[in-house]
């Protein structure tokens, strides 16, 4: 009960703060606030997009949760999504035009393998050469991001398009739509399934248990005969595969082509979601919906009234800033 | 050539030095990127209104330091997650700067410094001197004094310090103050070398500073090598753009990849040394 | 480290997650109540949405788009104007412009970028009743989209010709080497296919031996890198640079000013950026073009489906010759030759 009270207090505080910011920076704060809160649900298009964004965020957040649970920090999410999406798209373009379900499956699998491979490099380096995965994944990501930019805008650029993009995938590669004309496809179902499966593995199966023990105390894990090679590489592999899946799904459901920088931010948001969800795959679902709502909310507020791009950044930043703060002393946690 | 190297490496070095100390105290300051931007903007404001480089640099360092300590203190007081609040700062700062810039200077774009300021040579020498001083002093303090011991103890074992009556949170907030201070200097140098505040002027230098901490093996001397390594890679890439007949955008990720390979080689050497 | 949760910490982080759930629940509740009280917009107003694919500040072409739209809207009482910045992520533009169209309240959406016609065509399929105007873009035969573009190749040729004149001149900062520089923010189709070749062609019209040093910053804001590239170019013998790199232009100007070489400007009058360093500037009249087009759209006389190209002869592209900073810093010999070339192109 006190939990609910805490949350209620906090939410009131949230609303007051957001409203105060809007009062300060927007010429029409009331309208901006209404657009921000209800905008995502004002028409089917926005609602569908909210779900579509949430779906991708769930997958990213779940993946990061797994590596966090193993005590590993993967900062290379940005490139793992982006590069594997490009590889997936290229494979899709190489397949015959009417590949349909089979083609979609191949694209997804190839992207997952690419993402997993990139992340595994960091895992391998960590295990074999004791190079911190945080830094190796970050540097590899920095290099791969611009390499992918280069490949998209030069080698594989669609010369007919003015965007920096590859050619579009044929329509048989589009995932079935749920709420036309929005971007929502069956991704949301895939995302929830992935979260559930990984939750089950993590909390109900021996492998997941061993991995969590490894994450909490490496010496103890060694003592218990838990393979440190396995649980350094596997979590990052799963994490990378999730990012690859997210990239592939963004391509197959929304973009249909790899556009320069299209996935920017999802890697970071994955980390944020995992942290909010306390590394629990199931809890990434509400956390992802919250971030997706903030994202779509700021977009509709921008489209509807006079909230500018930088105001939307400020609002998003404030919400991130507040989300983990605990404004009331938690007496029990004082030890 | 040497000048280019310094112009590129000093801002990263300053920010990395600050980040290094927070890392020693146990929590890495992930908001460096945003804080550099903040420092750069404050520098412009003070030059614009007071027309004094000296005051501008000092104020940029102090105010950015206070901001950094403020957000770290807030996070710790309310037991938040410093990684998320750090990312939030990176999102917030550019937004707030654009808002202020639009209100005060009526544009969210480039803000040019119209008054005459020192030449690049003086600037580089000044900042080089400043960085060396701060580096030597801070490393000396960290290694040889009670206060430095406290910082290292916080990073090594928080609990133990708590038990013995110390206040690790206060130590960490102080390292964040220092880190913000350094980011302010770093931003000031960027603004002064470009003669303007440009939106997103930090352009990834904060992230490179974080990378430098780890590439330097979390050691003070390693920091210098790491930053120089980045700088040489970057300067070579800029030179190579004109020399080889290859698409320019290929070279943009060059510093990252070279550093990555350097990291692997270092790991391999460490491994053979161990066995 | 701070991302590991265990014991007490885990419990308190569960509170965060729990809080998220409650928060979401409350939002849905709020949405439910507010959906009961929707009011209707007045019907006789004309709503214009300006979609800026990027940010307005610092980009002359978008600043002119916004200014042109504002002055058009100011002339009619029933016209509402709404300027929306889309940010730099190309992958989000289609979604953002779709969400504008999805409101169904915009009578016309105006935007500006060579890439936008394709995006608007895609959005048009999803929302077939929406009208679009695309400046600086080209698309024929979509009866809901009107496009208008400028001849960027011609514009680059004007810059290139002056660059050629400057590098082969006796001006103080010019050296013996016949190399001119172009620093781009990124490599994009119009840059590689029109602007860079046009720039070189203009210079070759002066002297066939002139060579082009082309480099890219990799983004549109890294001024320090812009300055670095400029310095690298200068040490390779370049004595005149055309930067088309957004905020990074500032770095190029600073480096050029220090080395005492010259800079040219693109799209808007840039002489005042650094008097004596910026010695040439082309401009396009996007504000006037936007104003004219929008007035037609408001009056209902705009022929949607048409695609217009504006060149030098239309007056919407110019080389700015009458600026005092141009006449006072550039030798007359150079100015006369540039004027001859300008008149020849018309």
Q: Summarize the helix and strand pattern of chain C as letters.
A: HEHEHEHEEHEHEHEHEEHEEHH
The rough form of chain B would be described as: globular
User: How would a textbook summarize the main sheet of chain B?
Assistant: 2 strands, antiparallel
The chain-level mean pLDDT of chain B equals 87
Strand order of the largest sheet of chain B: 1-2
Approximate helicity band of chain B? over 70%
The top-level CATH class of the largest domain in chain C is: Alpha Beta
As for the number of domains of chain B, it is 1
Shape of chain C: globular
**Rounded average pLDDT of chain C:** 86
Order of helices and strands of chain B: HHHHEHHHHEHHH
At the fourth level of CATH, the homologous superfamily of the largest domain in chain C is Response regulator
How far is it from the N-terminal to the C-terminal residue of chain B, by CA? 40 Å
Which class do the helix and strand fractions of chain B yield?
A: mainly alpha
Query: Which structural class fits the helix and strand makeup of chain C?
Result: alpha/beta
Main beta sheet of chain C: strand number and arrangement?
Answer: 6 strands, parallel
């Amino acid at each position: 009960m006190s939990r609910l009270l805490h949350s209620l207090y906090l939410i009131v505080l949230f609303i007051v703060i957001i409203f105060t910011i809007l009062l300060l920076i927007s010429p029409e704060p009331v309208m901006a606030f209404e657009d921000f809160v209800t905008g995502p649900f004002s028409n089917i298009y926005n609602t569908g997009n909210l779900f579509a964004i949430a779906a991708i965020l769930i997958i990213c957040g779940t993946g990061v949760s797994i590596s966090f649970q193993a005590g590993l920090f993967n900062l290379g999410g940005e490139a793992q999504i982006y590069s594997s999406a490009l590889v997936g798209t290229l494979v899709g373009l190489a397949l015959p035009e009417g590949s349909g379900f089979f083609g979609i499956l191949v694209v997804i699998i190839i992207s997952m393998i690419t993402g997993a491979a990139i992340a595994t490099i960091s895992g391998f380096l960590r295990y074999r050469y004791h190079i911190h995965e945080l830094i190796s994944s970050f540097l590899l990501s920095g290099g791969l991001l611009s390499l992918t930019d280069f490949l998209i805008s030069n080698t594989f650029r669609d010369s007919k398009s003015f965007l920096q993009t590859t050619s579009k995938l044929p329509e048989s590669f589009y995932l079935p739509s749920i709420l036309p004309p929005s971007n929502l496809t069956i991704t949301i179902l895939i995302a929830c399934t992935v979260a559930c499966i990984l939750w089950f593995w993590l909390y109900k199966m021996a492998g997941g248990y061993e991995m969590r023990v490894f994450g909490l105390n490496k010496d103890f894990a060694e003592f218990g005969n838990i393979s440190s090679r396995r649980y350094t590489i596997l979590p990052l592999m799963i994490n990378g595969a999730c990012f690859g899946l997210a990239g592939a799904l963004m391509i197959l459901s929304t973009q249909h082509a790899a556009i320069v920088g299209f996935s920017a931010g999802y890697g970071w948001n994955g980390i944020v979601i995992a942290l909010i969800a306390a590394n629990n795959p199931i809890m990434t679902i509400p956390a992802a919906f919250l971030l997706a709502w903030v994202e779509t909310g700021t977009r509709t507020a921008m489209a509807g009234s006079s909230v500018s791009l930088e105001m939307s950044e400020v609002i998003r930043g404030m919400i991130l800033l507040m989300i983990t703060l605990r404004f009331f002393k938690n007496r029990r946690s004082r030890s | 050539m040497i000048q280019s190297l310094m112009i590129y490496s000093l801002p990263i070095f300053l920010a990395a030095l600050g980040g290094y100390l927070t890392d020693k105290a146990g929590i890495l300051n992930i908001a460096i990127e945003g804080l550099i931007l903040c420092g750069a903007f404050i520098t412009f404001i003070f030059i614009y209104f007071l027309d004094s480089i000296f005051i501008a640099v000092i104020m940029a360092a102090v105010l950015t330091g206070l901001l950094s300590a403020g957000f770290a203190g807030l996070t710790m007081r309310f037991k938040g997650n410093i990684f998320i609040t750090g990312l939030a700062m990176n999102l917030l700062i550019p937004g707030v700067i654009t808002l202020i810039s639009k209100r005060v200077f009526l544009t969210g774009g480039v803000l040019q410094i119209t008054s005459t300021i020192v030449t690049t040579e003086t600037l580089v020498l000044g900042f080089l001197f400043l960085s060396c001083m701060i580096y030597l002093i801070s490393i000396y303090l960290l290694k040889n004094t009670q206060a430095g011991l406290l910082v290292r103890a916080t990073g090594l074992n928080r609990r133990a310090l708590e038990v013995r009556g110390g206040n690790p949170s206060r130590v960490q907030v102080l390292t964040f103050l220092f880190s913000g201070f350094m980011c302010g200097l770093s931003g000031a140098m960027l603004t002064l070398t470009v003669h303007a505040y440009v939106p997103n002027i930090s352009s990834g230098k904060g992230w490179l500073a974080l990378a430098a901490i780890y590439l330097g093996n979390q050691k003070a001397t390693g920091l210098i090598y790491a930053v120089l390594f980045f700088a040489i890679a970057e300067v070579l890439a800029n030179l190579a753009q004109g020399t080889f007949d290859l698409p320019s955008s290929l070279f943009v990720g060059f510093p990252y990849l070279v550093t990555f390979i350097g990291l692997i080689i270092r790991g391999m050497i460490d491994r053979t040394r161990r066995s | 480290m701070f991302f590991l949760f265990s014991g007490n910490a885990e419990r308190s982080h569960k509170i965060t997650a729990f809080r998220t759930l409650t928060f979401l629940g409350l939002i849905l509740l709020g949405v439910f109540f507010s959906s009961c009280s929707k009011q209707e917009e007045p019907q006789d107003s004309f709503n214009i949405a300006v979609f800026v694919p990027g940010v307005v500040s610092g980009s002359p072409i978008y600043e002119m788009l916004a200014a042109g739209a504002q002055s058009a809207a100011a002339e009619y009482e029933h016209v509402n104007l709404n300027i929306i910045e889309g940010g730099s992520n190309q992958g989000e533009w289609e979604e953002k412009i779709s969400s504008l169209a999805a409101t169904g309240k915009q009578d016309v959406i105006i935007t500006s970028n060579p890439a936008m016609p394709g995006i608007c065509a895609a959005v048009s399929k999803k929302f077939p009743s929406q009208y679009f105007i695309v400046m600086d873009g080209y698309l024929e035969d979509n009866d809901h989209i009107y496009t208008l573009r400028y001849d960027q190749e011609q514009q680059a040729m004007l810059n290139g010709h002056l660059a050629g004149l400057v590098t082969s001149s006796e001006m103080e900062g010019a050296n013996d080497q016949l190399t001119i520089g172009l620093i781009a923010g990124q490599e994009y189709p119009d840059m590689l296919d029109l602007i860079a070749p046009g720039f070189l062609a203009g210079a070759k019209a002066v002297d066939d031996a002139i060579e082009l040093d082309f480099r890219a910053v990799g983004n549109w804001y890294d001024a320090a890198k812009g300055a670095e590239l400029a310095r690298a170019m200068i040490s390779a013998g370049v004595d005149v640079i055309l930067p088309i790199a957004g905020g990074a232009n500032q770095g190029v100007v600073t480096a050029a000013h220090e080395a005492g070489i010259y800079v040219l400007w693109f799209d808007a009058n840039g002489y005042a950026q650094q008097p004596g360093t910026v010695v040439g500037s082309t401009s396009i009249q996007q504000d006037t073009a936007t104003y004219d087009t929008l007035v037609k759209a408001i009056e209902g006389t705009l022929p949607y489906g048409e695609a217009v190209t504006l060149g030098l002869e239309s007056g919407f592209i110019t080389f700015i010759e009458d600026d005092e900073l141009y006449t006072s810093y550039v030798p007359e010999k150079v100015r006369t030759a540039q004027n001859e070339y300008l008149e020849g192109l018309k």
